[in-house]
């Protein structure tokens, strides 16, 4: 084995930015190996890993493989050891024919990053073919008058080997009449000639049989033989002569069958039978030659279609023989002209699909192109559509890389159908199209997007727990797991809000649920943020604002602020009997903690001691006299006022009013008899309790309590006497009597309230109500 590094004149280097694919002077160096042909399959050629300076592991990780034109598998690479092995026996004659040297060009393709290494394997010829004559016997007719020293042409032997292994010498068994000369042709091939050493005598020996042996230069040499039958004929002293010893002709490979190639012509100065010439193919088997000749006219025509890619040149030897057996020879050199009859071929070496989006420049495919035609017919140009974000880059001889021109966006377009067109420069131009499908793989480059920038949800109060309030929705333009959105509640940023006890969210579909019953009066509205995050890597997220408005329900009854109810001491409104119709007795004040129409209150008189005497204004709760008072009207009145809201269904409450009609005022304390009796009973009970406690505690305490009790009893009796007296006649002099009739000219509203257990009666002056006229 021989290994050599040969530097070529030019260096090309392609650098790819994003993925750092370096083609390390791919065309600058070639690794050359040589080996004999016909080595057994599986034989060791070389260790590529060692020659390239690569470790065995790099061959595996970089996906090393051997590429030969049209993907023929002649060699195989063992990536585990780095050894280059023969896949099959290599026959130099089948691969290269007569071409010398026989060099096979391979490419070592490395991926990740992409690198091409030119590998050349020179096959050395071995002597594996013997010389072979196309015919087993040839006939020579030699006139007996031929003089010694005359040379007769012999057919040459064919040997597929080259160099010293081809035919080197021709021999003949010793005989008294002939010997063989071995001569060199212009192309280096040897041909034999038979030389007459001694004159022939037909009467003595009419025919001779000789054996010609062709020997090659191998070690040991191989040989082939042909029998030569010599017929001695009568005298014919003029041999045919061709007008040209060499005919050169060019024939297009597309020529049809029976097409005329050339017409050769020979003349013989003899007359009669000896002057008639017959033409024949001197060298070659009718089955192998694509030509045929008319033996009379000498016209050479095609009997088989020519193929420039198979054979470019033919040397045809034509012999002309006269009737006396003399012959002449000429050579016809046929050059097959190339016609653009082969479309380019595209061989895909590697294809990367899907291709990730957002990558600046990515290798999508590596392919090679070839055209077996020659000249411009074999030159090719590769192209793709103009409206695609891809471009072709020439990398190594006829290898191309399809790369992305700019980052791809899967959301804009997720699939490309790329048609690679390979066109030769011949006339007419032939082209080949190859379509590849490139899928764009998704990268998580889009955050989830909510359908609304903010959401407003309306929830009625007193809802049931786990109520579905609404749904937030976010979409992600990515695909697969990158588009799977998960929802969550984000921590509140403002004042602390117990969000975890109010709201929950379904992480999969964004459904929002109220965890507990909401109370409009306690919480009318609240806001929180919802986040949406995808499942990509890295994960992207977005958020939106959700505002929950609690809708009021009519769930609260009106609450009376005045007059006080619910266990407080009842208040009695004093109304002078002289009051006119429309006199303001009092005003019922109530509130409703609901809102809207649920808080609109209306008032109505539900029940009265004397219907028609008092009325209640529906909108403001004012209690007024409905008519003039008279002496026949009862002194005490009990009114029940209904306070009702405007909700659905309406809620209501009642308030009880006590009204006392009075004629005048004699002292500031005017308690009611019922209230006095209640107070007396309460005082007596208190005395008894104090006495019982004092008797149990100690005698000293008993004496003190007894003393206090006696004093209290006396005080109560004194108060009871004045409590029930209502003066008659005029008010004391310190009260102003305006009209002189013993009554006040102005109407006053008084409030008499008894508080249990106080022992005192309070008389409170309220604001005067002035008439509409001036006194």
UniProtKB/TrEMBL annotation:
Gene designation per UniProt: PCDHB3
Residues annotated as transmembrane: 687-710
Protein name per UniProt: Protocadherin beta 3
GO biological process terms on file: homophilic cell adhesion via plasma membrane adhesion molecules
Keywords: Calcium, Cell adhesion, Glycoprotein, Membrane, Repeat, Signal, Transmembrane, Transmembrane helix
Signal peptide positions on this chain: 1-28
Cadherin domain mapped to chain residues: 25-133, 134-242, 243-346, 347-450, 451-560, 575-675
Topology of the protein relative to the lipid bilayer: Single-pass membrane protein
InterPro entries: Cadherin-like_dom (IPR002126), Cadherin-like_sf (IPR015919), Cadherin_C (IPR032455), Cadherin_CS (IPR020894), Cadherin_N (IPR013164), Protocadherin/Cadherin-CA (IPR050174)
Main location (coarse class): membrane
Any one Gene Ontology molecular-function term assigned to this protein's record: calcium ion binding
Compartment annotation: Membrane
Gene3D superfamilies: Cadherins
One GO location term (cellular component): plasma membrane
């Amino acid at each position: 084995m021989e290994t050599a590094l040969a530097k070529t004149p030019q260096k090309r280097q392609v650098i790819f930015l994003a993925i750092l694919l370096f083609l390390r002077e791919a065309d600058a160096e070639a690794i050359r190996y040589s080996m004999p042909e016909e080595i057994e399959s599986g034989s060791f050629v070389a260790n590529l890993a060692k020659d390239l300076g690569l470790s065995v592991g790099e061959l595996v990780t970089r996906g090393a493989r051997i590429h030969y034109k049209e993907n023929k598998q002649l060699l195989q690479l063992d990536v585990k050891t780095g050894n280059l092995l023969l896949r099959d026996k290599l026959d130099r004659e089948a691969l290269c024919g007569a071409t010398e040297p026989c060099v096979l060009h391979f490419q070592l393709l490395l991926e990740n990053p992409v690198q091409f290494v030119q590998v050349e394997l020179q096959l050395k010829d071995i002597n594996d073919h013997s010389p072979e004559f196309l015919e087993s016997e040839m006939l020579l007719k030699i006139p007996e008058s031929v003089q010694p020293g005359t040379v007769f042409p012999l057919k040459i032997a064919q040997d597929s080997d080259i160099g010293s292994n081809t035919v080197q010498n021709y021999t003949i068994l010793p005989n008294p009449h002939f010997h063989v000369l071995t001569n060199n042709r212009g192309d280096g091939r040897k041909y034999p000639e038979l030389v007459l050493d001694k004159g022939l005598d037909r009467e003595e020996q009419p025919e001779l049989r000789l054996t010609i042996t062709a020997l090659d230069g191998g070690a040991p040499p191989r040989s082939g033989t042909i029998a030569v039958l010599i017929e001695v004929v009568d005298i014919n002293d003029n041999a045919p002569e061709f007008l040209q010893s060499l005919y050169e002709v060019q024939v297009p490979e597309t020529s049809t069958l029976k097409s005329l190639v050339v017409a050769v012509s020979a003349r013989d100065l003899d007359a009669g039978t000896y002057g008639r010439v017959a033409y024949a193919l001197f060298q070659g088997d009718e089955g192998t030659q694509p030509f045929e000749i008319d033996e009379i006219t000498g016209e050479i025509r095609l009997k088989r279609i020519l193929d420039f890619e198979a054979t470019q040149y033919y040397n045809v030897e034509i012999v002309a023989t006269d009737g006396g057996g003399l012959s002449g020879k000429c050579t016809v050199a046929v050059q097959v002209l190339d016609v653009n009859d082969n479309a380019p071929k595209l061989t895909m070496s590697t294809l990367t699909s899907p291709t990730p989006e957002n990558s600046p420049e990515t290798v999508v495919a590596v392919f090679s192109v070839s055209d077996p035609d020659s000249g411009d017919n074999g030159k090719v140009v590769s192209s793709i559509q103009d409206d695609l974000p891809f471009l072709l880059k020439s990398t190594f001889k006829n290898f191309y890389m399809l790369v992305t021109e700019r980052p791809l966006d899967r959301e804009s377009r997720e699939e490309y159908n790329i048609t690679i067109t390979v066109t030769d420069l011949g006339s007419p131009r032939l082209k080949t199209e190859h379509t590849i499908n490139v899928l764009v793989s998704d990268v998580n480059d889009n955050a989830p997007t909510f359908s609304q920038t903010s959401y407003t949800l309306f929830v009625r109060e007193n809802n049931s727990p786990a109520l579905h309030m609404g749904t937030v929705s976010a979409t992600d333009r990515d695909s697969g797991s990158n588009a799977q959105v998960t929802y969550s509640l984000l921590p509140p940023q403002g004042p602390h809000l117990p969000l975890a006890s109010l709201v929950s969210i379904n992480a999969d579909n964004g459904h929002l649920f109220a965890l507990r019953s909401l109370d409009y009066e306690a919480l009318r509205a609240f806001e929180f943020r919802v986040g949406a995050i995808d499942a990509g890597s890295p994960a992207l997220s977005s958020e939106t604002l959700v505002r929950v408005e609690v809708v009021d329900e009519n769930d609260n009854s009106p609450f009376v602020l005045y007059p006080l109810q619910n266990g407080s001491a009842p208040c009695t409104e004093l109304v002078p009997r002289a009051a006119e119709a429309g006199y303001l007795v009092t005003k019922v004040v109530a509130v409703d903690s609901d809102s809207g129409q649920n808080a609109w209150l209306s008032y109505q008189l539900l029940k009265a001691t004397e219907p028609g005497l008092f009325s209640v204004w529906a909108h403001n709760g004012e209690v007024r006299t409905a008519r003039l008072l008279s002496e026949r009207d009862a002194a005490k009145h009990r009114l029940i006022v209904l306070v009702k809201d405007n909700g659905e269904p309406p809620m209501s409450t009642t308030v009880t009013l006590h009204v006392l009609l009075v004629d005048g005022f004699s002292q500031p304390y005017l308690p009611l008899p019922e209230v006095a009796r209640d107070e007396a009973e309460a005082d007596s009970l208190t005395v008894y309790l104090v006495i019982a406690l004092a008797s149990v505690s100690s005698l000293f305490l008993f004496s003190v309590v007894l003393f206090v009790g006696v004093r209290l009893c006396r005080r109560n009796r004194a108060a009871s006497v004045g409590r029930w007296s209502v003066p008659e006649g005029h008010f004391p002099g310190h009260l102003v009597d305006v009209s002189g009739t013993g009554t006040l000219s102005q109407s006053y509203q008084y409030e008499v309230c008894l508080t249990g257990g106080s022992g005192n009666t309070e008389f409170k002056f309220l604001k005067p109500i002035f008439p509409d006229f001036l006194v």
